[in-house]
Amino acid sequence: MPVPNSGAPASRLLIRDEVQDKIRNAILEGTLVPGERLHDEDLIGWLGVSRTPIREAISALANEGLIEMAPNRYTRVAQPNPAEVLDAYRTLGIILGGAVRLAIPNLTEAQRKSAIARLDESLRTLPIQGTPSIVPTIHIAYHAWLDRCSNRQLVTVGRQVMDGLAYKLRVETIGDLIPAKLLIEHLTDFRAAIIASDAVAAKLAIEAAHMLPRH
């Protein structure tokens, strides 16, 4: 049968994706703060697009957990809830552990050095500034490991949820919920596992750092 012409929908989809990326980045970078109301008119003026791709992008970001909506009441940047932190953090550990397990055997030397450099920066910062020092950029490290993962299905699932889960960690009590001492201990083990190319040890270290049970 004739193949439908999909040119127009694809074009709209690309605009929606671009709008979604810009709003997501503004939230993760702190330009749009937790609880801030999002009005279509303001977003139209900022992004220079019509209402339709904006509403589509907002709906997608709500599914990611970065935006909260109540019909006829508000659309706003999500407000992280301390009660959700540990569940989100452990979920991140499950996903990241799998990505690390698959990525470690295939790391190039340049990728290995880059991963160690990121860890070294965190390990320098954590004893001085505590857990809050790494939370605003922790999603970047998660995505870096997804970039190295060979399982495309795991990568797709991870991309869909990583930012929203990492955003849930941005609470004032994060240092009490996830102690820096715990992170330092297990990230040090993780660093050693990367150097040794021990994928299983790396996965176990990541899971321990994310407060997952060992047994």
Account of the 3D structure:
This protein has a two-stranded antiparallel sheet with strand order 1-2. Strand 1 and strand 2 (74-77) form a beta hairpin. It has helices spanning 7-28, 40-47, 51-64, 85-103, 109-129, 138-148, 152-167, 174-177, 180-196, 199-209; strands at 67-70, 74-77. 67% of the residues lie in helices and 4% in strands. It is built from 10 helices and 2 strands. It has 215 residues and is mostly helical. The protein starts with 6 loop residues before the first helix and ends in a 6-residue tail after the last helix.
For the sheet with most strands, the description reads:
2 strands, antiparallel
Strand segment count:
2
Q: Termini, distance in Å?
A: 55 Å
Tally the helices: what do you get?
Answer: 10
List the strand order in the largest sheet.
Answer: 1-2
SSE-based structural type: mainly alpha
- Secondary-structure element order, as H and E? HHHEEHHHHHHH
Strand content: under 5%
Helical residue percent?
Answer: 55-70%
Shape category: globular
pLDDT below 50 for ≥5 consecutive residues: which ranges? none
**Radius of gyration using CA atoms only:** 19 Å
Mean pLDDT: 93
Based on the model shown, name its key terms.
215 residues; mainly alpha; two-stranded antiparallel ribbon; 10 helices; 2 strands; globular
